[in-house]
Write a structure and sequence with these properties.
Blueprint (H helix, E strand, L loop, with lengths): L5 H6 L20 H7 L8 H11 L12 H4 L46 H10 L9 H9 L2 H11 L5 H12 L8 H6 L8 H11 L5 H4 L13 E2 L10 H12 L4 H10 L8 H4 L8 E2 L21 H9 L19 H12 L7 H13 L9 H4 L35
Antiparallel strand pairs: 1-2
Protein name: Cytochrome-c peroxidase
GO molecular function: peroxidase activity
Main location: other
Length: 421
């Protein structure tokens, strides 16, 4: 059996007996209180379930043609993403959505870009059955195929005390995913009292993040809210690049009004209706073109960005926000021009790279170099709109005087131990 990933191995707080859930040792930046709230008592991962779940997560035999595993789109070496704009499933079929990271997914209120799954268990089930992801025809077919692998028959009986079934298979994968938390970034050390953990540019970026750039409106991050996500859904105009939302929504309503979870999953990944986002789940007009606010932890190494992977670098992402997004009838009311200068954009990018966990420091250097090399190729850049020289996208947020006091430093908690007690 493949060894547990380094994060999972180091996470167990002590030696657990078989079937016993031991409290995990959480990295700095991951709240123990948040973990307790997020993990139901009956789903606390045990070493045995995590080991079985990791094996399933990496097993291509869960797909119809033995070519794709969960790890294909969520590669642990790439911070549990695949580095592609949109993911590729069996028979080289390309989906409509970018693969979000599994890291810290256990803390999310909902799963997937449109929140169509409420738990990690529900999330684990759907890709295995989606025709263009892993392509298995039914839960029964999955169970029959996995039962045909002798070691799994033995392991499921040992771990769950009963014959293999689809719910337990999903529960094992979810147990593995609940051990994939991520902290230990330079930002975490800064927040814990190490003023030298961030350089001057990163500190300026943190101040912009909380001020002029208005990032914290949806991506607030602090000791009690360490995810850098409001867990809500917003239309920021990304999907408006492609089509008329009103016409598409009217057409979709005829199809999804009585749609079940499986149908919504297929519409989201296989059709033009993918761009309607949360609307496919709620059928609420206010949700047209809205997608979940992703976590910014490890954002420097989890591109391309947005639900469709259409933005290649963090400079592209900031350019999009700087001009106020793309106008459409359902644009979130919080979207407005930011008026960020080029040095300010550089500082903001620097700060976001400081949210990378130490586990991925080598990948961080590689990705920063790659993105910097593309810095002069900026398809989303519209300086005139960002600076208010065209259009009418509102007043700018205040720009604090950092010579007096950097407001971002108010988040420091003084000298404390940088390891979890």
């Amino acid at each position: 059996m493949k060894a547990l990933t380094c994060m999972a191995v180091l996470a167990w707080g002590g030696t657990a007996l078989a079937g016993e859930a031991s409290p995990p040792k959480l990295p700095i930046g991951v709240s123990a209180a948040l973990y307790d709230i997020s993990v139901p008592p009956d789903r606390k991962p045990t070493p045995e379930r995590v080991a079985l779940g990791e094996k399933l997560f990496n097993d291509k035999r869960l797909s119809a043609d033995d070519s794709v595993s969960c790890a294909t789109c969520h590669d642990p070496k790439r911070a549990f993403t695949d580095g592609k704009a949109t993911s590729v499933g069996i028979k080289n079929q390309v989906g409509q959505r970018n693969s979000p990271t599994v890291l810290n997914a256990l803390f999310a209120a909902t799963q997937f870009w449109d929140g169509r799954a409420g738990t990690l268990e529900e999330q684990a089930m759907l890709p295995i059955l989606n025709p263009i992801e892993m392509g298995m025809p039914s839960p029964e077919a999955v169970v029959a195929k996995v039962k045909g692998i002798p070691e799994y028959r033995t392991e499921f009986q040992k771990v769950f005390g009963r014959e293999l079934n689809y719910d337990d298979l999903a529960a094992a994968i979810a147990a593995f995913e609940r051990m994939q938390f991520s902290g230990n970034a330079r930002f975490d050390r800064f927040l814990a009292g190490d003023a030298k953990a961030l350089n001057a540019s990163e500190k300026r970026g943190w101040a912009l993040f909380n001020g002029k750039a208005r990032c914290n409106t949806c991506h607030a991050g602090n000791a009690v809210s360490p995810l850098f996500s409001d867990q809500k859904f917003h239309n920021i105009g990304i999907a408006a690049h492609k089509q008329d939302f009103s016409k598409l929504a009217a057409e979709a309503l005829k199809i999804v009004r009585t749609g079940d979870e499986k149908q919504i999953d297929e519409l989201a990944l296989e059709t033009k209706f993918s761009e309607l986002g949360r609307f496919l789940v709620t059928k609420n007009e206010n949700d047209i073109g809205s997608f979940k606010t992703p976590t910014l932890r490890n954002v420097g190494v989890t591109g391309p960005y947005m639900h469709d992977g259409s933005l290649t670098t963090l400079w592209d992402v900031i350019d999009h926000y700087n001009k106020g997004g793309i106008a459409n009838p359902f644009l979130d009311g919080g979207m407005q021009r930011l008026g960020l200068t080029e040095p300010e954009i550089d500082d903001l990018v620097a700060f976001m790279f400081a949210l990378t966990a130490d586990d991925f420091s080598a990948l961080e250097k590689q990705e920063l170099a790659r993105q910097r090399a593309r810095k002069n190729n900026r398809p989303e850049r519209d300086t005139a709109a960002a600076l208010g020289k065209k259009g009418n996208l509102g007043d700018l947020a205040p720009n604090p005087n950092l010579d007096i006091k950097n407001p971002a430093e108010l988040g420091l908690y003084g000298p404390v131990r940088l390891t979890e007690k």
